Fold these 4 entries.
Entry 1:
Amino acid sequence: MRIARPQRQRLLGLLTMAVAPIVAFACQDARDPSSQVVLPAISDPAPVATTAPVPPAATAIVANVSVDDAALDKGVKPCDDFYQFACGGWKKATPIPDDEASWYRSFNVISERNEATLKSILEAFAKGERASEPSAKALGDFYSACMDEEGIEKAGLEPLRAELAKVDAVKDAASLTVALAQLQKAGVDALFAFSSGQDFKDATLVVGQIEQGGLGMPDRDYYLKDDAKKKELRMKYEEYVTHLFVLTGDKPEDATKSAKAVLKIERALAVASMSKEDRREPKKVYHRLDRAGLKAQAPNIGWDAYLTELGVPSVTAINVAQPAFVKAVSGLVKSVSVADWRTYLRFHTIQGFNRQLPSKLVDEQMKFRAAMTGQAKLPPRWKRCVRATDEAMGEALGQAFVKATLGAEGKATVETMIRAIERAMNGNLNKLSWMDDATRARALEKLALISNMVAYPDKWRSYDALKIDRGGFLANTSRADAFEQNRQLAKIGKPVDRLEWLMSPPTVNAYYEPTLNQMVFPAGILQPPFYSNDRGMPANFGSIGMVMGHELTHGFDDGGRQFDAKGNLADWWSPAINTEFEKRASCVEKQFGTYEVPGGDKVNGKLTLGENIADLGGLKLAYAAFKSDSEKTKSESASGFSPEQQFFLGFAQGWCANERDEYQRLMVSTNPHSPPQYRVIGPLSNMPEFAKAFTCKTGDKMVREGASKCEVW
Ligand SMILES: [Zn+2]
């Protein structure tokens, strides 16, 4: 449940979230194991030879067919509810496993297969096999130390002592500052995060970056809203905090008091936090200061000592993403007692290392997670250890993974598909009626300069300087976090590395990064059922092609459009066209804001705007790319469906999912993506090509017309 570091999810728009989600193409911290609930994303043209046996759950679902007949619910008319039509059979037949909060037909199938592959690699490394491969020993040791449950139980809280000693050393504001730096470096989410990031207005330069943080629940709303569900979760959270204190040695009455102190500080932080909607707006999170400016803004934090302790004593250019938050923290440093600060830091240290501790602590965290997501139990230990290893040394593990999966041929096929989608965008921009010539020219320039990275990095990161052994899971994690933090901080003041990957190759996801004007599709997601050589192209364009179009459209969504071809935050829109864009975006915001999840919570139209624009545009581009090749459109019918129908079913069946009610509620509170059913119904009901393919008529639920029909790109 650790909060992701900002650099991992700094794709605009992105929230830091504890129990986060993610979904789908893109965006966020796919490496945080707590956030692996993700959804799908991209696909792959390449056949995948898995070295590990595919688990039964995966084989039962995947089939390389254009239309999964068994997934359909033919009792529902496609023009009434296309999601239910495409997925109803699958939804009924596929219960959510106890150790998951949601289950997706595509994403989870791929994820299961990837994790089985990674497991077999790590087990071989742990046995000393394939020792000549990069970082084989370190990977094997990291995985073994994580799998050593007996050793972890025996060690008890001992491995935590060194971390808690940093907390005990807090005696005043000065030592608090030093402890903050030390704990943050070890991966503890204390108050805020200091990292590095591209200067929004100078795409050639990396500056220091301060982001709000320090909450144990996923969002400020959980502290501030008073609806029954949020109140109940707040109570459960307080119980959880209390129990962690008891389990680490406090008397129950002391633990109760300590939990109240933690909640009080977190509530104050929540009040000062910027909302998730505002955090999606690039201009609201860009406030570059120099050292003197930072000191003036937050005078009670000893910044010189803090930055020296972090290892960046001379950094001057710093972007403070949320100035009001940092100011408030400075006020709290003075007003909160030293004893309460120690209590707060002690909790975040225990919670930050919870996964590395004995089962009684891990189970306690699981109980809270269950309340939050509905997930009943933990995934098996091996899965948690595979994810932890990927998080700690993703590019080392990734090298072995791509060797076992996607070859060079697959990489080439994916690149060809991406070019087809880019051509479709070019054609679309040239036809778009609401554009003027000046803005159109800038948009075309931006499109031409998009760079793509596919499957895996050309140059791999080295972990040689990271010390890993079998001595202890917690110590390994702490060192891996410090190693990553140092790598991030070392970038400050240097030119931007445009070839860096923000996701590891086995990740089942993809992203567009506006500050680089770049799309990235990791090998993890380039697989069936998102793409398969063994089925017709219509379904491939509907699934993986749509994902590519989705990422491309992010360059032109409400956030992405504020960055120019080089990745600078810059106004390149003529005022009249700016207004035209906003009119169209507000149609999308309104449409999605009417959708509901169980319990009555509504989708947040503002929070999900960028993703919804990307879904609408992505589908349109994929369809255009599919129709541009007459050979593809002539493909045979499959299960009685025309090529056009296969395209739309290929898209919709990529989103078949079951989600627990608690989880859907969590998602609408925190996730910038809409729930899966609306990611299908929403875009399709705006699309005349869909209505034509299934002969839907005016008045049908899947047909929006007139002023309620939305189209941006
Ligand atoms: Zn997206």
Entry 2:
Amino acid sequence: MISIIVAVAQNGVIGDKNSLLWHISEDMRFFKRTTSGHPVIMGRKTYESLGRPLPNRTNVVISRTQTAIEGCKVASSLEEAMAMFPNEEEVFVIGGAQIYALAIDIADKFYLTRVGHNYEGDTSFPEWKSDEWQLISKEDYERGEKYPYPFSFEVYERKQK
Ligand SMILES: NC(=O)c1ccc[n+]([C@@H]2O[C@H](COP(=O)([O-])OP(=O)(O)OC[C@H]3O[C@@H](n4cnc5c(N)ncnc54)[C@H](OP(=O)(O)O)[C@@H]3O)[C@@H](O)[C@H]2O)c1
């Protein structure tokens, strides 16, 4: 099964100049706890922004130009990446915008951190059809330990057709 995990600013922005625009330690911990032990699939640019494979996870990088990256598996499409794992295994698509756009209409589950602030950035989350998704959990925070704006962890499942 495919899960998407992302943190999105109030105005839809997810990044700028191939890096993140905020540091929310609660969200970093949520991401680590949620994805650890599961495969993660990412675009080549997101891999470059991380700079190394994420530990305790099989890392798959999607690229049309690269064929080998140390410590990672490389796939030339999302389908090729998904075919590396059994259907029942929860596999996380962790960005960026290009790879989210490939996955949003076929994903089964959607872990959305809503960041309650507007940011200027060059990369935004793609349009998604909120009526196709059922909210199954939500945790709201007025601020973080070190982050001054509100944020929420929302988890959605695709509605049964
Ligand atoms: N807020 C969040 O939760 C979050 C999460 C992740 C990333 N981000 C941000 O998102 C930004 C990066 O996103 P991005 O959209 O620019 O890049 P990206 O999706 O990470 O990577 C794009 C690359 O993926 C490969 N690719 C894309 N579509 C493909 C396809 N159909 N088949 C094969 N390969 C394909 C290409 O690699 P090649 O050029 O090698 O062919 C392309 O250049 C950064 O700012 C990052 O910080 C934010």
Entry 3:
Amino acid sequence: MRYPVHMEQSLPDPNVAFGDHRCPGPSYRDLVLRDETGVPAQMLESEYRYRGSEPIGYHRYTSKEFAELEFEKVFMRAWQWACREEHIPNEGDYHVYDVGQRSIILVRDPQGKIRAFNNFCLHRGTQLKPSGDQGNANRFTCPYHGWAWSTTGKIASLPCRWDFPHLSDDDLEMPEIQVDTWGGFVFVNFDPTAGPLRDYLGVLPEHFQGAWDLSKRYVELHIKKRLPCNWKAGMAAFLEAYHVYKTHPQGLRATGDANAQYDVFGEHISRFMHTSGTQSPHIANQQTEQEILDFLLGRKFSPGMETPKIPEGKTARDVYAQLSKVQLGEKYGADYSDFKVADTVDSIEYFVFPNGFFFPGARIPLTYRFLPNPDNPDECTFDLLFLRPHPADGNIPAPAKVCHLDFKDSYASAPGMDPGLGGVFDQDTDNLAAQTRGFKGSMRTAETLGNYQEIRTRHLHETIDKYMARP
Ligand code: FES
Ligand SMILES: [Fe+2]
């Protein structure tokens, strides 16, 4: 396969309409169609349309007023994932989810149903369970005067009940929030009139089947890190592969960055997919398949390992995927046989509005969540999880405890984090404080976006606008 000259020299063709320009190298689809295993059908779908080239105002990232309105109009109305079902497997298990100033208790009731309750006392407002808490309880008791609620939200204890003749038991029922599940994730929606989660998720349930079924995975690692940026700026750093060339140059010999595919599926879902095991179109020198494989294995496998020779008719990706499936299968005791080449090795990232990211791939099985800081639009919290397939022997490990990292802490310092990958995440988030500085200090007041590679960021803002415009 021939690659073009160095991409920095590639200019847009003036005869092509806005939105139709693409990297002059092979497309993601071209690349995966060469895989020996074939490609999962959903990966051959594509859904892009030009959505304009208007700049995006920086006030959307920096303004406190904007952040407050956004919280009310978006976070109080959109479905968002709060925890995993395995965080609360048994009756009475609970998990506290905080978003903005809100806090809710997710609990498994005696019927096995997951319910979500306001985590604040109906007497004088005291928070019932601390933020970040989880455990098991048959009632939630306020630490101040001892009012308590059952796991079904009924008032269970009220000391000196005689002094509250003006309140009925109905008045004392704990407000409940809509809950539903998908892929082992527990989603909540603060809006009692919100439509069903399944409709909200669009193509997601259909795409995440078989090997991609996230309900058959467990949380291997969970990092929660503070980031010095608005939650949308943090997300935007992960919505495109355009930055890979400059921010993560170490992997370019085996990363199809500029030929990534970007899709927008309806109002809430977008996706990118980029290859591992093909060279970046930014690299002018054509490598052999064997050189690409050697590079990949040198980086990802043990240093002493002998590099296999690529058999006739196969590619670096084919061999890399095969080896990966064996390696992952041994490490996690799980069956990876349903994965094809592309979903074994590639970076496949689905975004679910407003703040969830889900990666079905075997080598890159991530989940992200970005939460706004209610007091400061220049800060957010980033949850980073690794989900691994359930082991075949049925001994499913308990979900990992959360590892908290502050602004300056390296991801690599989290126990269990691969140091190389930790370094990649550090590279991603190193840019964010500088960008936030620019949002405030630049003589320009808006950012400009690539029409194709940054379409998901544009789509994010578009959907926010739709939510903000609703009465
Ligand atoms: S504030 Fe909770 S019991 Fe008084
Ligand atoms: Fe990155």
Entry 4:
Amino acid sequence: MKENPKILIVDDQQQNIELLEAHLIPQGYKTITASNGEEALDKLVEHDIDIVLLDVMMPGLNGFEVTRLIRQDERFRRLPIILVTVLWETEDRVKGIEAGCDDFITKPFDKTELLARVRSLLKVKAFNDLSKNFTNQLESEVSIMTEDYKRSIKKIKSESLETIHRLSLVSDYKDKSERAHINRMSLYSAAIARQMGFKEDSVETLLYAACMHDLGKVAMPDSILQKPSKLDPDEWEIMKQHTIIGAKILKGSDSEYIKMGEVIALHHHEKWNGTGYPHGLKGIEIPAECRIAAIADVFDVLLSKRPYKEAYTLERAFSIIKEERGKHFDPEVVDSFFAIKDKILKIRKQYQSEKKPKFSISLSFFDEDD
Ligand SMILES: [Fe+2]
């Protein structure tokens, strides 16, 4: 309980106020006074009041009305109010309780009764304050812990994604492709998925999963990956294995990114007409993310210099993608690809000029467009 609790005395009769003060001040209470309801409401806001002694019969707002107005203010919902009047009919008491008062005192005051009631309500107030402070503190601590937890999760996620991305770069180095192939290919995939109406979290999963499409190339012999001419049938059979090996490396993970990465690694060379590998899946048998990754991968490879080929012009690459609509590629994915041609070119421009590959990519790349 506070050392010198503050009591607001509201009465239109100055002698009543003085009488109450004469009882209360010697007990160590501080008093604030008001001669009407409006003034009382102002004083409540100005001072940190602990209890209100409120006369019922006053000109202007009466005690019941003032009680009601105090209770309407969230800050004073639990502030102890004692109504003071000369006579109490049962009806008046009911009215007081309904208005929200906590106790009643009858004039003329009995000093002992007055002090006992004030003390008792101050104890209730002290308990309420303590409970309120505890709740506030608890809420604040929970909120801090929740923020810390969110920050930690975000950090772990970003570190995991960076690890996935860095490991995926192995395939770029391994087949000596133009640097940043996986960055461009992943961003193309995410852009197409977004255009096709994928949910934002699936777009993000695809962005990082697509990075892993050629992970299986780590197991491919350099003599095949870097062969400056067309592969013979035996070499081609070995090359096809990069899909199965990639999927094996990624198999059995609980991570959504790695699970999707496994599917993309396995099926990114399937073709819409069923002539792809490793399983010859056809049409919508091929998972949607793989149909998207296929076009993103091929488009970038067409534009890149590889040991076995020069880089094609943009015009030629676009025309091949168009020709392969309904053959190699899902027609809907091709249409979405061309619908965001400007965005595709923007990704290419930004990631083509990189001397060193970026070790992280994010959907924020698209933010300025949206
Ligand atoms: Fe591949």
